[in-house]
Amino acid sequence: MFFNKNYRYFLAIVENGGLTRAAEALYLSQPSLSKYLSRLEQSLGVILFDHTSSPLKLTYAGQRYYEYVKRIESIDRQFEEELSSIRNDEFGEIRLGIAQWRGSILLPLVMPAFHKIYPHVQINILEGRAMQIETALVQSKKVDVCLMNLPSHFPTQTNQEIIWNERCLLVGNRTHPVVQEALKTIPVSEDGYRNIDIRFLENEHFISLMPGQNMTLATQRLFSSHNITPKSTWSTESMSTALNMVSNTMGFTLMPEAGAKIPFLPNNLEYFSISHSRELFSFAVVYRKGFVLNNWIHTFLNLVRQIYTSAPCPMPLDDAAHALRP
């Protein structure tokens, strides 16, 4: 839209390999295009093409100018897309990357509220581990936005905006004797949780996630700092499986605080903050540098933020959805 036509003339010459074909593509006379190129090289003070070659080849200066023009073209296209979304934001697509467990607890709450605002904007979801979804963001560009725990694997190629810094919570079954005793003797803190010393896990079964996950690393750091080794440890790939195992056994697990804010996890679970723990997860939106977050994405992220900043077990977001629209 705003891309200077003179840039288009230059690109046409490069992409068609010469003046004759470029002039035909632009519906211009060859002498006119030749004069344009002469004036352009004169104004820049450099020779852009090796005029002795056929087809024309870019000089070093020409190659650098070509790269500059392509960047300008990309910025122009992104700005046009942003204006288009402002003019008519009723139809479109969000390509979202998210960890599987995060998706299972967030999306059932966010998507119904989002689609009340943008019923014709489709959300296409890629689920996987942080490395997988961020690779899809940066390298294959199969997604445009990731919701994930930091650190980013591509910090120089992406922007990261923290949505919420969340704690590790200990999760137990309410029928467990230790949990029963804690419910009777430990008051609820201002943050909404009972604070518990996890050294009792020396005598308990613990359900851990498989190596390579952020929660596994956090578990190892916590156990090391408290100098404890649980009575036994079971491992699973899935946080959902770990929580369901706690719900149906006498074991314990650790969970990011987000889970305590969701109303449809097993209702016999109790969540505890952990004494003397500084374990935090920075949950963030990650996107490629230069990518424009349009109105749809801003609305989607606002709904996610509302979940994370609300009290545990929020009510459905339907009533607040339209108020969050940019």
Structural class: alpha/beta
Number of DSSP helical runs: 11
In terms of DSSP E residues, the strand content is 15-25%
Shape: elongated
Q: Termini, distance in Å? A: 25 Å
Biggest pleated sheet: 8 strands, mixed
What's the pLDDT, averaged over the residues?
Answer: 87
Q: How many beta strands in the DSSP annotation?
A: 12
Q: N-to-C SSE series?
A: HHHEEHEHEHEEHEEHEHEEEHH
- What is the C-alpha radius of gyration, as a whole number of Å? 28 Å
Task: Name the poorly predicted regions.
Answer: 313-324
Helix content: 40-55%
Protein described:
It is a single chain. By secondary structure, this protein is of the alpha/beta class. It contains eleven helices and twelve strands. Helix 1 (5-16) packs across helix 2. It is elongated.
Short description:
The protein is an alpha/beta fold and 326 residues long. It has helices spanning 5-16, 19-26, 30-44, 60-87, 100-117, 130-138, 177-185, 214-226, 239-248, 295-309, 318-321, and strands at residues 49-50, 57-58, 91-98, 120-127, 145-149, 158-173, 194-196, 205-209, 232-236, 253-256, 269-274, 280-288.
List the helices and strands and how they pair.
Layout: H1 5-16, H2 19-26, H3 30-44, E1 49-50, E2 57-58, H4 60-87, E3 91-98, H5 100-117, E4 120-127, H6 130-138, E5 145-149, E6 158-173, H7 177-185, E7 194-196, E8 205-209, H8 214-226, E9 232-236, H9 239-248, E10 253-256, E11 269-274, E12 280-288, H10 295-309, H11 318-321
Parallel strand pairs: 3-4, 3-5, 7-11, 8-9
Antiparallel strand pairs: 1-2, 5-12, 6-10, 6-11, 6-12
